[in-house]
Structure formats: structure tokens, C-alpha cells
Amino acid sequence: xxxxxxxxxxxxxxxxxxxxxxxxxxxxxxxxxxxxxxxxxxxxxxxxxxxxxxxxxxxxxxxxxxxxxxxxxxxxxxxxxxxxxxxxxxxx
Length: 92
What we know:
alpha+beta
């Protein structure tokens, strides 16, 4: 998958090496208008820049702390284009 190639073995959330503990995270999910928004923006829901690879524990932190995740660009609102929202590190 393209997200794994783009990750280059590094967690997008914390910056540490992924190893075998990586999962694909959708920055803008279907429930937030991701599929419709992805078509409108000319990107695809299951491809970068909407998909990033993070550790499973970081993925849980992203969903447990949506306010911090939005501030870090790990969750993108439905009205925004994921290609235009930078990703910053969290302390996972």
C-alpha cells in the first residue's frame, strides 16, 4: 500500500521506527465525509495524503484524544483537504 511506502518505516504520529506494529490510519474517515470529500478534492480515501501509518498504540491515542490529534493534523475535518493539512508529532 502507498501509505507504507510513504511512511519509510517511521510512525507519522511519534516519529519512532514502526517495526511490525504499524497500522494504517485514515486522517479523514468516511464518517467525517472522507469519501465524499476525497472525491471532491481529487484525492482518494485509501491513499496518501489521507492515509498514514502509525503504531497501534499511537492510533489508539489519536482516537482517544481527538482535539490533540486535530491540532497535530492526524485527524482532518471533513471540509479540509488532507493534502493541505500538515502532520505534526504527538507524544504517544
